[in-house]
## 1
Amino acid sequence: DAAAVCRLNQACLDYDYPEERTAQRLEQILPSSANLLMVAEHLPTGRVAGYIHLCDYECTYSDSVKNILAIAVDPADRGRELGRRLLACGEKWARDTGAAGVRLVSGQNRTEAHQFYLSCGYSLRKMQKNFIKLF
C-alpha cells in the first residue's frame, strides 16, 4: 500500500515524500510493535481510501499514550465516517495496549481537521510551533 499511503500523504497532509522512500519507511515501521498502521480500503476493489498511523509516546511528563502521527482520508471519501472509524480503531489499540489516552498534533492551517477532532471528543490543549533540523 506504499503508493496509496504516499498519494494520501501528498493529497491530504501536504507531504511531498517519494513513493520509494515511503515503501522503505513502511518496511521499517510495520514490524514494530510500538507502531500501528491501518488502511481503510474499498471492497471489492481494494482501493485505499484512508489510513492512520499511531506509535508509542513515552515521556517524563505524562502517562504512556499513543501518538497519532498521521491520519488521512481521500477527499473523495470524506463525510462517510471513515475518519471516525480509523480514529476508533486507533483508540481501541491504545486502550488494548494499556495507554492512558491518544494525542495528536495538527497543522495550524488544517481548521477543518481541527473541527473534526473536536467533534470526535478530542480537546485542544495548547498551540505550539513545530521545529525540525535535518541532517
## 2
Amino acid sequence: MSFNSIAFAMFLPVVFLIYWSIPRKYQWVLLLIASYYFYMSWNAKYVFLILFTTIVSYCCGLFMSGAKSAGHKKVILGCAAGICLGVLFLFKYFNFFSVVFCDAARMFAINLHPVTLNLLLPVGISFYTFQTLSYVIDVYHGRVQPERHFGKYAVFVSFFPQLVAGPIERTDNLLPQIRQEHRFQYEDAVNGLRQMLWGFFKKVVIADTLANYADMVFNDPYSYRGGVLLIAALFFSIQIYCDFSGYSDIAIGTARLFGIRLMTNFTSPYLSASVNEFWRNWHISLSSWFRDYVYIPLGGNRRGAFRRYVNVMITFLLSGLWHGASGTFVFWGGLHGLAQVVENIFGWNKKKKHRVISACIVFVFVTFAWIFFRAGTMQEAAHVIRYMFSGISAPVTYAREALAAVGLDRKECLGIGFSLLVLFGFDFISLKKDPLQEILKFPGVVRWGIYYVTGILLIVYALQNAGANQFVYFQF
C-alpha cells in the first residue's frame, strides 16, 4: 500500500476517524493494528520478520536492564545486533557477498560457484532494522530506559507513516509520543495535511514526471549518446530528491494527523555549499544515525586528521552499502566520503564567500555521483559519463537533439521549468522561514486557490504518470 495509491486514500481517513473516536488509552492499539495491516498489504508473510525483529530487540532491551555486569550487557547487545543484522544480511546482502567471495577466490585460481538465494527483499527492512538497532544501543549506553510495554514498543518499530522509508526515528523522540494519550488538535491536523500536499506535489508532479525521461535513458543507456545522457542525469538528481523528500513530507504530515511529530529529514540539501553540509541536510535521519552509531564510535575526529579521514571513508562506504548490495552503491558512498576528506584537507567547509558558486559546484558533484547510484552497473555509469558531453562543441544542436531524443516539447519544458521554479523557490525560502506557515499569511481566497490548483495538478499528473508511481527508496 503506497502513499500515492487509492488503497491508502481509503485506509488513512478510516484510521484517522477511528483513532480520534476511541478512548485515548486504546490509541496505541489502533496504531499497532493499522501498522501491521499496512505492512501486510505489501507481503503478508514478511510480517513475521518485523515481528521477530521486534521481539528480539524488545527482549534484549529488558535483559540488558537486568544484566549483572557490563560484560553481560555487551554480550546481549552483540546478540541483538547479530540477530537483527543477520536477518538483514540474509535477505539483502547474502547473494552479493556470495558472488564477491567467489570472484575473489578466482583471483587465486580457486574456481567456486556462488550460492544464491531466491528471496524477495522485504520492504522497509533496512529502515526498521536500523531503528531497532538504535534502540538497543541506546539502552546499552543508558541513554534511554528499556520499554516494558511490548505493544507500545511494537508500535515504535512498525509505526506505518515512517515504516517503509523513514525517517529512521530515535527512541527518545518517537517512543515517548506513542506512550502518550493524544488529544485532537485542529492546527496539528491542518499542518499535517498541508505538508502532505506539498509532499504529493513533489512526488507526483515533479518526481514522477522526471522519472519518465530518466528511466527511459538509464534503463537502456547504451542506446544514447550526447546531451540526452546529461538530461537523464540532471533529471534523476531532481527526481530522487523530490521522490524521497516527498515521501518524508507525506510521512511527517501523516504522523501529525495522529498527534505525533517525526523528525525533519530534508532541509534544502541542493542549496548546500559543501558536501559535508549536503549530508547535514539530506536524509538527516540516516546521516545522523551513521554519525552517532558508526562514525563517533570509530573515534570520530578525536584521534587526529588521518584517523578522522579513515572514519569518514568507512562511514560512507557503509552508507553506500546500506543503500544496496551492489558495487555501484558502494562506489557512490565512497565518492561522497572522498569529497568530504578533500573538503577538510583544503578547508572548504570554512569558506563563507561565494556561496552561490559553491552550491552550484556541490550540486554538479552530487548529480555526477547520482549516476553511479542510478546506473545498473559500473560499465553503464562509465558509458553515461564518457558520452554525455559528445557533441557539446555545437551547443545549440547538442541541446536540440537531446530534447528531441527524450521527447520533450516546449509545453513539457515549460511545465517542468515552472515546477522546478516552485521547488527551488520553496527551498530558498526554507533557509529562513517555513513556507507552509507563510501561506497562512495569504488571504483566504489566495490560500484556498493554491490548495485547489495543487489538488487539480495532482490529479492531472497522477493520470499522466500512472506507470511511474513507485517510491525510489522502497527498494532499500
